[in-house]
Write a structure and sequence with these properties.
Two copies of one chain form a homodimer. The first copy, chain A, has about 750 residues and is an alpha+beta fold. Chain A folds into two domains: about 290 residues, Glycoside hydrolase, family 65, N-terminal domain (Beta-galactosidase, Chain A, domain 5, Distorted Sandwich), CATH 2.70.98; about 375 residues, Alpha/alpha barrel (Glycosyltransferase). In chain A, helix 4 crosses helix 19 and helix 9 runs parallel beside helix 11. The longest helix of chain A is centred in the middle third of the chain and has 35 residues. Chain A is globular, with a radius of gyration of 27 Å. In chain A, about 55% of the residues are buried. Chains A and B meet through strand 23, helix 13 and helix 14 of A and strand 23, helix 13 and helix 14 of B.
Chain lengths: ~750, ~750
């Protein structure tokens, strides 16, 4: 855990450069707009620890992966999130000396991410090796008003000299991916054009042939007027620049505005990329930095109106929750139904792929509660569109008759992750899509979704479960063998309780959905029957038999459900007894030691109790929480939020708050020692859930919104808005009271602490 | 299963070229001499299916392996068996047409491997596209008399023309490894010299920097006299040749003798490689092909005297057993204690590494029974020398205090395989080394081995087990969690019965060894105590507790031991009910489907019953055999031989014979559809065991040799020699009687069918 960032309500602040933490800061201070994003690397040269990263949504590379052994059904590739061509470079040479922050003496360095307006701001004074001293003030943003635009204002003032300086403004596709398996570079040049004053570079990914066109224009200003230097251009393979030689005058600020337009072949025909890029580039430059910034900030203002959570009396918590909401909003805007929420967003390369079960299990509730229902619906339809691929995935593994097995990680519906213990065995993810449907319908009331899209998916997934279980003659029950549950610190176990529960529940949910669609839209029902060759009587009979006779492991003496068969054979030693030097386990212990230990990466049995809270008594939840939580290391960022919600439910308020801090400030404080690889974007939705579902006790039951709020001791008050069925409801919880207002929309009856409450 | 090779007592014969099976033949017809070896690829060009493979013992490449995810303790590399520089090429061009057997019309093609003399012989008549017809007769061998020498006699006769021909005789290090992860080539050129008449090429492996120096000389003869052509030389990166242009005369045979000397930096200082190579080359050429062949054949004659098994009345079985013995003998001669028995020997690249548990569990008994005890002892000492590395391996995985964990696959003592489910979890292999000690001591009576080398290894391995088990409060027993047993179609299971048994036995064996060394050589004992910081009282108390309270799964109703916890949850469907198109499972089913099925790759519970036969009643063995064998797919080549021995023991004679054919002719008939990748060398020792231990009922009990022979119905008689404590014993089993003779050595009392028998 680190604590080098200053607490502030609306800003993330680093005062003084922390070279050892620079890669962490680069992740934390990242900016994006749903279409493109950028780690907080410097515009200038930097020879210290850094990890340059520019990203364009939807662009990936299917890197082939090979191990000593290959087994049938292994995916062919691992989809890498690609480091895209960089548009931020402004390399500075003063006299003969490069401005390199690792080689200067620095004063007043600050890096500030203003979350209210989505702007990264950096300033410092640097004394170069030859004694020359400059002051720099740099701002940049990726425009929320136009997802293809980035802008930089780079101001430099010579403090104790006048001399010639040169500024290299580049577009550079000669970039590396940190996690390239064999130091391979993934971009090839298509074309480049370097003119005096502007340049355009088109690069293409190998294999996938995505093209990204980066256009750069710029202006120089001094003392409020445009000014010019002597310009040269350089090109090399995958690189174009303009070098501007300029006579700096002591005490006089030079301001460089760099405008970038980044167009992807996902949104433009390849043969129109350059034309469209230049057009947008001219328009962007014509608007100018200040106008672009105003438009950008306006979008953020609207977003914050809808989704802000205000915490009074605890700046660290306030900063944490806003940081999480900010990242969610700049990663996925819901504007493009082909996109999804990558686990690192635009903050790093790690994890690859764009879509995990995180989307359904964690992100969906966030977007349901903060945004128009169409955004959550888009997320569901994304999976509907992948149904044929999910059926193919299942076929590759030997399943038949239209069984659908959704991938663990995907870009286009195909599995693109390749640890067998995950891709083959972490099968519960395929039902996260089912749970998301239930969540969406409960929340929005839009039950028509089942007939329109849902039922086809449900039939496919239920077929998968029906083939995946087997009858155990020994137990006289259906069992599910060889799985990995949400707790990935167990692999290839039998009868993971969460998986068995979710599988059986899915089969029941599908049967209900069939009844509903049949009753409300028999025409569409028959269409689906024909399309899926559904044998209703036979298949539903089988599904009923399985869901009725599913095996659930239990320790009756302790009154707990068993995470999996054999769990009680382990040495059950609480995490509190581990030596500090053993943590985090995934960095300190070998894999086999983790596997045979009792330690739980993230909620597993408890994940089920969170999802199906209504199926269990508070006593049951308490017993299982008391048993499993002490063995949980929370080394998945998805873990703490579930614990906040359950701890709140069973009255463990202090524990809940402790977990909350952990999820809310996971990346700000680098709890898991891995923020340098990027932020944990999808789990950030969990932070929002922690407040709204945890402290606020929000849930939807029988179509009604319920709250059971309490306030952490450390806070004075907190308040949040909630989108719900056409209304916006504002809830403010203080020490002594809860105020609930209908901010917009029709009157509504809700349930507050178990009592009906009419909002008008 | 294929059946294209002709049955013959001493030869493997292919009549007519089978292009689709060519890669299988290349494996089967491989030749070697313990130091170098060669797949049966053609000297000429061949544009059909082929897999060129030349191998030099001890030369490997640590190919880095990367997957999407890396976990702590994963080995850094996968050791590839390297395809070494080729010395066999004699490319032929007649007029303008290349001799390419894929593009000719062929008559009388035969490929013969003469096992008696270790010579590969190939002859054919080929009609080229332009109608020219030639007859070719090619022989080659890797000299058993000098492990660095290979020789080829290539005779070509123009049948219907006279014309100019050119012959390209090359040394070529520009070779590929079929299983290179990224199409990388692993050799770099050090130097080359191409003269008229001879050439030398030194190539070096990347990373490991092994050097191999290949020297080539040759002579041309016609009508019994030396002759010459016009010679050119060509060189390119990693390649040298001589091109000899020669006027072929219709009906007159031209004989080319090509001599190769292949020296490795493992046996020569790098700066002497070329000098030593040239010296040997001159000497080799001076001796000439016929003399080299005589010396080579003489070595084979001696070997066959010691280890031949003669089967009368069944040519297929005779051919099978000799093929297995032949391959064992040409793979490992015991001459170099740094070498071991690679699973593919010199017949292919697959599997990587050189040393598996196959050596101890399968190969050792073969060498004990057929060779001087020093060879088996060398195999034990090989592991003794790796003890420090085994301790390091254990440390990498978090074990402490001198625990030793031997690698699953190794070249130099380090783990070089990288599936976690194997390297971390297939822990039983570390006790195969212990079992090998017992086997060696039982067989040779050399109990001093314990004091000299054994006990240090035993203490390390026992420490490993003591840390690897854990106490299950639930079971009130010690359990072993997260393992893979010999049956690799199960991964990460708990309480694999074989592993638990072997672990507990190891702890007991070590305690016995301590008592023995203490009683017989207390000085050495104290030395070992000091060297290993052994805390006798404390450590042995713990070991005793564990071995006394180990958990063994059992199904009391069925009277069988449980392969692992939860085995009875599976659908227990016999292999006989699988559809033919599902076999072999490892080529047809996805990995997860295999894992959750009941199917057993190779003996697992039964492997234990084979190793510890004396611990179980015939009834117990029968019940377990009847339960597990029908679910066994024998997709490991190590499986059938164990079943021959157990089936023999329990009187299942027909089944025993069926399994025998499967092991004896595994590669000849390509049972598992994978011989094209190389032969299953280590399992070939199992074939020998099938006859001697299975049909012959040989075992050593209390220092005495026991036999309980029977004869398969299909055979007239079989006989074998056995090396045992300074004697050679010959056993001949016929339908009506068994004759046992002392072929050499002091008188000896043995036990035949339970009765004492004095041999003099």
């Amino acid at each position: 855990m680190k604590n080098y960032l200053k607490h502030h309500e609306w800003q993330i602040i680093e005062e003084g450069l922390n070279p050892h933490y620079n890669r962490i800061s680069e992740s934390v201070f990242s900016i994006g707009n749903g279409r493109m994003g950028q780690r907080a690397t410097f515009e200038e040269d930097y020879s210290g620890e850094t990890h340059q990263g520019s990203y364009v949504a939807g662009i990936y590379y299917p890197d082939k992966t090979r191990v000593g052994w290959w087994k049938n059904g292994y995916p062919e590739y691992f989809a890498k999130v690609l480091n895209a061509p960089s548009w931020i470079d402004i390399k500075v040479t003063i006299g003969d000396v490069k401005l390199d922050l690792a080689k200067c003496s620095l004063e007043n360095f600050t890096r500030v991410l203003d979350m209210k307006t989505g702007v990264l701001h950096r300033s410092f004074s640097a004394t170069l090796v030859d004694g020359k001293k400059v002051k720099v003030d740099a701002k940049r943003f990726c425009s929320m008003a136009d997802g293809e635009v980035g802008a930089i204002r780079y101001a430099i003032t010579p403090l104790n000299f006048s001399c010639k300086a040169s500024f290299t403004l580049a577009a550079d596709a000669d970039v590396v991916n940190k996690d390239s398996n064999y130091d391979e570079k993934f971009w090839e040049e298509v074309s480049k054009e370097a003119n005096l004053g502007w340049m355009v570079l088109v690069a293409q990914t190998k294999k996938t042939l995505f093209q990204v066109c980066t256009g750069i224009e710029y202006t120089f200003e001094s003392e409020g007027k445009k000014t010019k230097g002597k310009v040269f251009t350089n090109t090399r393979e995958k690189y174009v620049d303009n070098v501007v030689e300029y006579e700096l005058q002591e005490g006089i600020e030079l301001v460089i505005y760099k405008y970038a337009t980044v167009l992807s072949s996902e949104n433009h025909p390849k043969d129109k990329l350059i034309k469209n890029c230049i057009k947008k580039l001219d328009h962007t430059k014509a608007q100018g930095f200040d106008k672009l910034l105003v438009d950008h900030a306006k979008v953020w203002e609207e977003k914050w109106k809808a989704c802000d959570i205000i915490i009074e009396g605890d700046i660290a918590a306030q900063q944490g929750i806003r940081f999480n909401i900010f990242q969610m909003m700049q990663t996925y805007t819901g504007a493009d139904e082909r996109l999804n929420i990558g686990p690192k967003g635009f903050t790093g390369e790690k994890y690859g792929g764009s879509t995990y079960w995180d989307t359904e299990a964690y992100c969906l509730p966030f977007y349901l509660g903060t945004s128009d229902p169409s955004i959550a619906r888009n997320l569901l339809i994304y999976r509907y569109k992948h149904l044929p691929k999910a059926i193919e995935n299942a076929q590759k593994l030997g399943f038949t008759d239209g069984a659908a097995f959704y991938p663990f990680v995907t870009m286009n519906g195909e599995e693109c992750h390749n640890e067998w213990e995950i891709t083959f065995e972490e099968i519960h993810r395929t039902s996260a899509m089912v749970y998301a449907m239930r969540d969406y319908i409960d929340y929005t009331g839009d039950k028509n979704y089942l007939a329109e899209f849902g039922l086809e998916v449900l039939i496919g997934i239920s077929r998968f479960w029906a083939q995946r279980v087997n009858w155990s003659a020994d137990k006289g029950k259906y069992v599910i063998l060889g799985v990995t549950g949400p707790n990935e610190y167990e692999n290839n176990v039998n009868n993971n309780w969460y998986t068995n529960y979710l599988g059986a529940w899915t089969l029941r949910f599908t049967q209900d959905a069939i009844s509903h669609v049949k009753a409300t839209d028999v025409g569409r029902y028959n269409e689906i029957v024909a399309k899926t060759s559904f044998k209703e009587v036979e298949e539903t009979a089988k599904w009923k038999d399985i869901s009725d006779k599913m095996y659930y492991g239990e320790d009756k003496a302790r009154g707990v459900f068993l995470q999996q068969d054999g769990f009680l054979d382990k040495e059950l030693i609480p995490v509190s007894q581990l030596r500090p030097q053993d943590r985090p386990l995934n960095q300190k212990w070998s894999w086999d030691r983790i596997l045979r230990s009792c330690y739980i990466k993230q909620a597993d049995v408890l994940q089920c109790m969170y999802l199906f809270e209504e199926d269990f008594t508070v006593e049951q939840i308490k017993r299982n929480f008391d048993f499993y939580e002490p063995m949980t290391v929370h080394e998945s960022s998805l873990s703490p939020c579930v614990h906040v919600i359950l701890a709140s439910k069973i009255g463990y308020k202090e524990k809940a708050y402790e977990f909350y801090l952990r999820t809310a400030r996971l990346d700000l404080d680098d709890y898991n020692n891995d923020t340098e690889d990027g932020c944990h974007i999808t789990s950030m939705a969990g932070t929002w859930m922690s407040v709204v579902k945890g402290f606020g006790g929000m849930k939807v039951k029988d179509g009604k919104l319920h709250f059971a709020p309490y306030i952490p001791e450390q806070w004075k008050s907190y308040s949040f808005n909630l989108e719900f069925r056409g209304r916006v409801i504002n809830v403010k919880v203080s020490k002594d009271k809860t105020e609930t207002k209908l901010a917009s929309g029709e009157p509504l009856e809700i349930v507050m602490d178990g009592k009906q409450l009419a909002l008008a």
